[in-house]
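Q: Given only this backbone (342 positions), what sequence would you predict?
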C-alpha cells in the first residue's frame, strides 16, 4: 500500500511521512493523506485525487463546526476547513472513497503555545489506520482531545498526553461490556477454602489436572485437547468426582452441573493458541491478575475476576487466553450443562 502525504516539512505531515510507505507524487499512490492546510488548496487536491481514483483521507478541523470566532470578524481557517468538509461530503455521497477526519488541537510545532489539551500525532495515525481497516465506508469523524484536568504536566507546565494509559484504563473498565458471551452466574463459592483444597491435589500435568473422570480415580486421562480423549468417550462421560464430596470444590461442580471439570494453571507470560470448543464452559477463578484476559477473534478483551462467582463463557466461538503477568492464573473450568444462562 503506497501513500502520498502533503505538507511533510514539519508537524503531522512529517510524522505520517516518516512512518508510512510514501511515494513522491499523487499519481503514484493508492491512498492520499490530504494533510497540509493552504487556503482552499486541500479542496482542490481532494477533487483532483478523487478524479484519479485515489482513496483520500483529508485532515479536517473541529473548527469547521464553529466557524464563528469570538475574537475575529473574518475566520478564514474555519471557512476553508468547512469547505473541505462539504466537498468531502459531496464526493462521498457520489460514491467516492473519501473520508474527512476532523480534529482538535494536535501536539505539533504549530500548536506549541496552546495550553489546552492536545492529541498526539500517533493517535491521528492510529485513527487513520482504523478508518482504512474498517469494513464499511466512513464519511467523516470528529475527534477532540480529552479535556480532563488531572493530566500530568511537564516542568514547563505543558500537558503530558499519555493516551496509551487512557486506552489501557478504558479497556480494563469496559472488558465486561460483551455480556452475551461472558455472564456472571448467581451462586458464590469460598475461594480461600478452594485454594486450600487445591493445595492437597496430586501433581499437575503441564499445569492441568482432572477433577472429574470416567471412574472417579483418574486425575490425568481427559486433559488437554479433545483429540487426546480415549476413543469412544465424550466430554460428558467425565462426570465422577475425583475429590471428596464435602469439599467446596465439589459443591461448585455439583451445583453448577459440570462435567469434565479441570484445574488449569496458566503460567506467567503465556498465551494459548486461537481455538474453539464444542461446548460452552463455566469458569471459576481462583487466582488472577489485571493482566490476565480472554479475547476473541475481534480482540475484544474480557477479564474474569476472582470474586467467588462462576462465569458462563461461550467458548464455541474462536478465542484464546492471555496471561501477561509475572504470576500464575488459576481457573477451574468445566463443561456447562445443557441449560440456558441467557
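A: Predicted residues:
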Amino acid at each position: 500500500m503506497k501513500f502520498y502525504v502533503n505538507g511533510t516539512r514539519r508537524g503531522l505531515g512529517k510524522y505520517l511521512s516518516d512512518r508510512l510507505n510514501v511515494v513522491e507524487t499523487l499519481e503514484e499512490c493508492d491512498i492520499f493523506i490530504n494533510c497540509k492546510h493552504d487556503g482552499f488548496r486541500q479542496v482542490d487536491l481532494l477533487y483532483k485525487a478523487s478524479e484519479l481514483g485515489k482513496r483520500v483521507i483529508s485532515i479536517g478541523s473541529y473548527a469547521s463546526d464553529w466557524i464563528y470566532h469570538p475574537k475575529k470578524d473574518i475566520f478564514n481557517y474555519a471557512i476553508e476547513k468547512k469547505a473541505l468538509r462539504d466537498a468531502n461530503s459531496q464526493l462521498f455521497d457520489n460514491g467516492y472513497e473519501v473520508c474527512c477526519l476532523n480534529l482538535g488541537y494536535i501536539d505539533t510545532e504549530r500548536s506549541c503555545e496552546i495550553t489546552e489539551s492536545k492529541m498526539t500525532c500517533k493517535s491521528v495515525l492510529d485513527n487513520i489506520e482504523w478508518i482504512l481497516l474498517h469494513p464499511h465506508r466512513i464519511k467523516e469523524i470528529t475527534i477532540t482531545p480529552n479535556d480532563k484536568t488531572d493530566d500530568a504536566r511537564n516542568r514547563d507546565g505543558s500537558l503530558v498526553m499519555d493516551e496509551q494509559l487512557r486506552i489501557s484504563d478504558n479497556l480494563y473498565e469496559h472488558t465486561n461490556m460483551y455480556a452475551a458471551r461472558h455472564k456472571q452466574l448467581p451462586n458464590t463459592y469460598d475461594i480461600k477454602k478452594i485454594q486450600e483444597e487445591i493445595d492437597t491435589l496430586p501433581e499437575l500435568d503441564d499445569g492441568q489436572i482432572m477433577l472429574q473422570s470416567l471412574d472417579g480415580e483418574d486425575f490425568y486421562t481427559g486433559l488437554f485437547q479433545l483429540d487426546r480423549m480415549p476413543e469412544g468417550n465424550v466430554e460428558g462421560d467425565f462426570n465422577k468426582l475425583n475429590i471428596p464430596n464435602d469439599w467446596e470444590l465439589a459443591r461448585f461442580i455439583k451445583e453448577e452441573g459440570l462435567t469434565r471439570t479441570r484445574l488449569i494453571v496458566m503460567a506467567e507470560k503465556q498465551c494459548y493458541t486461537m481455538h474453539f470448543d464444542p461446548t460452552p464452559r463455566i469458569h471459576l477463578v481462583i487466582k488472577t491478575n489485571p493482566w490476565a484476559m480472554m479475547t476473541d477473534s475481534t480482540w475484544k478483551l474480557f477479564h474474569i475476576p476472582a470474586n467467588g462467582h462462576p462465569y458462563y463463557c461461550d467458548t464455541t466461538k474462536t478465542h484464546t487466553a492471555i496471561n501477561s503477568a509475572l504470576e500464575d492464573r488459576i481457573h477451574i473450568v468445566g463443561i456447562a450443562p445443557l441449560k440456558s444462562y441467557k
